[in-house]
Design goal:
Rossmann fold; globular; single chain; alpha/beta; 5 strands; five-stranded parallel β-sheet; 144 residues; 5 helices
Amino acid sequence: MLPDSLILFVEDDENDALLFGMALRKAGVLNPVARATDGEDAVNYLSGAGRYADRTKYPLPCILITDLKMPKLTGFDLLTWIQSEMPPNALPAIVLSGSAQEMDKQRALELGAKAYWVKPTHLADLVHLVHELNETWLAPISHA
């Protein structure tokens, strides 16, 4: 496991966060996960602001997975911030949202999201998405 293998998971719903953690374990993904509870918390994490100033304790992630509909800053706001404040392609972002609206998907992709996944209703389907996350986004990093 490389030190830069952290997943930043941005999700305001505690149950969705627990399910994502379960799916990671079931898929055998061992990457450490940091959770931000909304877009504002994620911006603070990524910029090293406030309690996130210690990069040893709060290292930069190798990938970000975000919900869209959150309080304070939405996933769209977060993607906009990443696009304007971080170097291009420095942080791959994947949207994991309850919205299946094509308009939301297109907007997220236009704002730089590398993938858009609709939250599945069954844990087995979420485990499948986590396998895809591992094969497509995490495994290439650990073999670099």
